[in-house]
């Protein structure tokens, strides 16, 4: 596959010239000039509407961005991904999370082998197991049905299942309470164990590698806690299951491989909720609902694979992101779900996006001379409005925002949803339109304010506007819609990675800290002061040793 420096291409240079022409054009003007702007810049996928008309683009911008996608060979890379080619070159792996949710009878192959029979076999095992737990047929060591599920995992082995279980709470099993322990800080586990009963608790130890320090430490402590309460090694088989690619390590830990659910190295950790890593989701929602989630993602995969680039939601969103990062110099991207159930969605996307595209060398290992992934952040509306929106409206930085909301709430309580949505619409409008000095002054004048005071206050009350946002609306947050929404963002990340010519599927950047922590842990066990680091690290470690009494 040919690769490129995107900023050396003609497509990029054409965008640079175009940027000079459009950078100071206000979106208000764009809307005034084009009565069809909403129709022109909206796309629908099933019940999901993407309105990207409140972006600093015109038709020429979109054409040029599409040109950039073609120059970067997005269609060819997309084909390579779906074909199971080893596009994660630094790890020599295919990237085939789309196979996990392939609901068609099309084979999907890695090294010439169809992976679909294996995928279906694991789904069948998940169905069998989750039905037993949910029906109460699977009992704990003392014969009681399971009431608490504690997932122990971190990163992709935590954030996806946690986010989905939270997002789909209305579909949750009433007997089951879900808990997620990720942090190696003992507080996380201790606080969780204080809320559960060992007799009715099932631990899911989720780790692709089964070597992750945080997860194994938590898992060992959970195991010790269970044995302390149930006092019998044979209890492990009724209270511990594992999800991993690493059978020997699972066995070493003491979990019978019959209680293990497998997945494969062609599933990246942050793309793994569709695999057996989704076991907590399937336990909580039931396998039928889990499969609806897969179906929603598959439908988005089909859209991404087959829709023309101009009508393709992930491609459009990816290109808009590139437009702001590389031409407007935006550093961040805000994710603003107007749905309390999606409160972990921004955190989930932080890993998805930042671990994927937080890279500074290209696929050939050369230092890039263009910016790559932005900082992803956000909180649910309307809480964010009372916290950080001030900066988005009036700060000196450009923050592109994704507003996400269902048209119908799972909790239709009085006027709550209308109030919530009125805020959604008002915010996108205010960000786009802003309020001019003349408007602000006229308003104060009408309120009877003196001219001197108006002159003083007006600059503080001016909103420049011209702040871009995407709006994503769908009917209701169902498993299917959520599946599509997650897949939409996964493919947006993929397209951006292709344009930036980075490998979105490795994460070497997390290794150095892990290695150093192992050395420091050995030193913390030793009572003597340390000397081998830089002065700051030595000083901090030695202060800690004195303070903690270690
Ligand atoms: O943070 C690095 C990472 O490798 C993530 O990519 C991954 O999701 C997480 O650690 C957990 O890894 P594992 O599932 O192997 O425990």
Automatic annotation (TrEMBL):
Compartment(s) where it occurs, according to its Swiss-Prot or TrEMBL record: Cytoplasm
Protein family (similarity comment): Belongs to the GPI family.
Record keyword Isomerase present: yes
InterPro entries tied to this protein: G6P_Isomerase (IPR001672), G6P_Isomerase_C (IPR023096), Phosphoglucose_isomerase_CS (IPR018189), SIS_dom_sf (IPR046348), SIS_PGI_1 (IPR035476), SIS_PGI_2 (IPR035482)
Alphabetical list of CDD domains matching this protein: SIS_PGI_1, SIS_PGI_2
Catalytic residues (positions): 355, 386, 514
GO cellular component, one term: cytosol
E.C. code: 5.3.1.9
GO molecular function: carbohydrate derivative binding; glucose-6-phosphate isomerase activity; monosaccharide binding
Gene name of this polypeptide: pgi
Name of this protein: Glucose-6-phosphate isomerase
SUPFAM superfamilies, per database record: SIS domain
Stated role: Catalyzes the reversible isomerization of glucose-6-phosphate to fructose-6-phosphate.
Any GO BP: gluconeogenesis
Pfam families: PGI
Reaction catalysis annotation: alpha-D-glucose 6-phosphate = beta-D-fructose 6-phosphate
Subcellular location, principal: cytoplasm
Keywords annotated in UniProt: Cytoplasm, Gluconeogenesis, Glycolysis, Isomerase
Gene3D superfamilies: 1.10.1390.10, Glucose-6-phosphate isomerase like protein, domain 1
Annotated PROSITE patterns: P_GLUCOSE_ISOMERASE_1, P_GLUCOSE_ISOMERASE_2, P_GLUCOSE_ISOMERASE_3
Pathway as given in its UniProt record: Carbohydrate degradation; glycolysis; D-glyceraldehyde 3-phosphate and glycerone phosphate from D-glucose: step 2/4; Carbohydrate biosynthesis; gluconeogenesis
